[in-house]
Amino acid sequence: MAGMVPYSNYEQALRRAWPFGAFDDFFAPLAAVAGSDRAFRMDVEDAGDKYVVTAELPGVGKGDVDVELDEGRLSISVDKKESDEQRGRSYLHRETGEWSATRGVYLKDAATSGITAKLDGGVLTVSVPKRADKAGATRVAID
After folding, report:
1. Peptide bond into 19 cis (omega under 30)
2. What is the mean predicted confidence (pLDDT) over 78-100?
3. Separation of CA 23 from chain center
């Protein structure tokens, strides 16, 4: 009976048990993917003449965020570092250390000018206007 694990804690118990813990340590650098505990949530809305992208970034400052649009791909990167005053403390348990994550979305008709970004209350809002001239796909006739 002492070795029984409640069903709600079963996944955590498996991670701690050998060899699963070794696998988690090995793949830890890849943890910043969608759905992991270090990735951030992101919503993309088609608002007619523009796209509105919102990302939840609690505790992240402007200097820790990089927003880039390259050939229709909007990338939001976060590189959160500890300050020097936090490094001098002695924590027993800490879940708010240094981390980085990148999320991206392809916006096929995004304009490269007029993009705005605002970080307020831990929520980043990026507004990306759509191109007026839609140079779409070209239909090719088959001989």
Report:
1. yes
2. 73
3. 23
